[in-house]
Amino acid sequence: MFGVISNSLKTISNRLYTFSLFNHTKIICHSTRYTLPTATTTNSYRYFCSNNNKKMNLSDDEWRVKLTPEQFKVLRQKGTERGGTGEYDKHFEKDGVYHCAGCDAPLYKSDSKFDSGCGWPAFFDSVPGALTIHEDNSFGMKRIEICCKNCGGHLGHVFKNEGFKTPTNERHCVNSICLKFKK
Ligand SMILES: [Zn+2]
């Protein structure tokens, strides 16, 4: 009898926790004016709308030692590499993971990469919990910026509902120079 009551209480408490987590997420994301992915998408980055919780906090000088000047420009200064020039634009090797070139955190599995023809590596989903997202209003455009959650490095942008026949109908447009492929 006590077992039944205790299990029921556990279920209720789990539901309350899920409910509060969901609403918390909604409030955080609302402040960024970002439309949440639909329930059918598997994106995990929706829980991380702030870039303030990154684990690595290196100074610009420390990053300059770690990165090439080109990587620094994109990862730390939100630059963009020239389309069609990146190492991984047409790279479709299987059974590997694309890691952050700044901190080595795993970001994208090779089976989520697809050929978008846009000139930059394209992925339809990330490794769970790997990214943070921000609304980016630079250059007169309203875009969704993606960063590495671990080091805060700029990766690129996410575009939604473009009609690609992928499980999420999203395109994570990522600069090659921000990635390092590993088997
Ligand atoms: Zn990183």
Automatic annotation (TrEMBL):
Pfam families membership: SelR
Enzymatic class: oxidoreductase
Gene3D superfamilies referenced in this protein's UniProt entry, alphabetically: Peptide methionine sulfoxide reductase
InterPro entries the record matches: Met_Sox_Rdtase_MsrB, Met_Sox_Rdtase_MsrB_dom, Mss4-like_sf
Any single biological process term in GO: protein repair
Organism: Polysphondylium violaceum
Protein name: Peptide-methionine (R)-S-oxide reductase
UniProt keyword Oxidoreductase, yes or no: yes
Record carries keyword Transport: no
EC number(s) recorded for this UniProt protein: 1.8.4.12
